[in-house]
Amino acid sequence: MPTIAAHTLGCKVNQYDTEAMLELFEGAGYRIVPFDAEADIYLVNTCTVTGTGDSKSLKLIRRLGREHPKARLIVTGCMAQRDPASLNLPGVCLIVGTRERGRVVSLYEEAAASGKTRCAVSSLKNAPFENLRVTRHEGKTRAVMKIQEGCDRFCSYCIIPAVRGGVRSMPLEQVRAEAERLAQSGYRELVVTGIHLASYGRELGADLVDALKVIHGVDGVERIRLGSLEPLTVDDRFIEALDRMPKLCPQFHVALQSGCDTVLKRMKRRYDTAQYTDAVTRLRRALPRCAVTTDVLTGFPGETDEEAEATLRFVEKIAFARIHVFPYSRRKGTVADLLPDQVPEPVKKRRCEQLIRLGNKLECDYVSKTVGTVRKVLFENASEGFTPEYVRVSAQGEAGRILPVLITSAEGTLARGRVLDRTAQLKGAFDAHGGLPVL
Fold first, then answer.
1. What is the pLDDT of residue 256?
2. Are 317 and 204 part of one and the same domain?
3. Residue 96's beta-bridge partner residues?
4. Parallel, antiparallel, or unpaired for β 374-379 and 384-386?
5. Per-residue model confidence as pLDDT tens digits over 163-205
6. What are phi and psi of 201, to 5 degrees?
7. Residue closest to 45 by CA, chosen among 103, 85, 5, 3
8. Contact indicator for 300, 328 with CB cutoff of 8 Å
9. Residue 127 falls inside a structural domain
């Protein structure tokens, strides 16, 4: 039986795509092995959002070619869609973009039989939603569920619309079937994601709330965690739906990118800091202890010291539970690549370090506020798991189970606690969204 191993670079959507391709290979009689094992085939799912993603992808593919000269390499994903010629490297048998992944097995077998590198990169114009299927996530207690593909926002710094195509969505009946399959496979938490999740259902006459209602109604699903949102998603309909969906985790990743209105305008983002603040206020009014997390991009062309300082002040004002920080990376084919006043790399690095320090402080502050509360923790293994707000908790539990844990202390971004016995559980009254007790 031929063996295949895979490695994913980039986002949760890429993780989903990789798992789906592996299941296709498994269904065709291939055996999946760990990536650090010897394999007949290595699949690398690439990322091209930043220059770092490109360089990591190329470095890994070259290393595999050197270390496993007899193996065949399959290269897929966003970098394959954007620049397939650069991936025609020693050992590469097949290059697949972001449209033909459902045919990856037959494409590979055709390429292997011919002895020539096959490039299967198709135009994304009018591409349909690719109904890939995932029924298991190896070694995971939560499952990523991709319900949306593509983006048409065309932010000035972003290459994603070019490598993922326009907006298309999984039909609601397929959303239900996917959630049911994952629940039957034993996953208690589903992470609902997409390239631009806020656009879900637009071409179907539906929206994200409709999809969440369908998933919420599936027996066996105990938690629903959302991928990245935009501030304008948090409207009256979304807030009203929160009360009717107690399975929805009170952690909301609301994209920011910059806390300065002049930078947001140059980025061609479709909101300002006032609208962002309103979205966070709405979420916290509905769920006072929810975790609001975000992405921040610094060093955008023309960003002055004053604009960077405005972002720092805004991030501190919002008091995020966690932030992911990225330096701006030039991407050919984007508007921002042609803008004047590109920020020097040392300045980007300094600004990133400032934001990371602030982000660490804010995360520690958020975690410290959980001390003395009881949280329902989904255990990843016997000694660690995550709360509904995605706070990492160290306690002695049981992998795959959701158990009530009294948080006894916080060490930086890690909470420590102990699982409550049955008697102690009965003394606490848990709220619908995750377990804050009345002790």
1. 98
2. yes
3. 76, 120
4. antiparallel
5. 999 999 999 999 999 999 999 999 999 999 999 999 999 999 9
6. 80, 0
7. 5
8. yes
9. no
What Rg do the C-alpha atoms of the chain give, in angstroms? 22
Total number of domains constituting the chain? 3
Nearest to 218 by CA among 173, 171, 259, 167: 173
CB burial of residue 333 (10 Å; 0-12, 13-18, 19+): exposed
- DSSP labels, 274-334: HHHHHHHHHHHHHSTT-EEEEEEEE--TT--HHHHHHHHHHHHHHT-SEEEEEE----TTS
Residue with tokens 């000035």: 156
pLDDT number for residue 405:
98
Domain of 31 in residue numbering reads as 3-120
Q: For 68, phi and psi rounded to 5 degrees?
A: -130, 65
Query: Whole-number mean pLDDT of the chain?
Result: 94
* Residue 273 sits in the same domain as residue 341: yes
Kindly report, residue by residue over 77-110, the tens digit of the pLDDT: 999 999 999 999 999 999 999 999 999 999 999 9
Mapping DSSP to helix (H, G, I), strand (E, B) and coil, where does residue 92 land? strand
340-398 pLDDT, tens digit each: 999 999 999 999 999 999 999 999 999 999 999 999 999 999 999 999 999 999 999 99
CATH of the domain at 394: 2.40.50
CA torsion sign for 377, 410, 435, 314 is negative
pTM of the model: 0.91
Nearest Cα residue to 297 out of 320, 279, 272, 324: 324
State the DSSP code for 161: H
What are all long-range contacts of 361-366, with beta carbons under 8 Å and residues at least 24 apart?
Answer: 362/315, 362/316, 362/319, 362/320, 362/321, 362/322, 362/323, 363/320, 363/321, 363/322, 363/323, 363/413, 364/410, 364/412, 364/413, 365/319, 366/291, 366/319, 366/320, 366/321, 366/322, 366/391
Residue 265 has pLDDT above 80, yes or no: yes
Coil, strand or helix at 211: helix
Residues 174 and 273 in one domain: yes
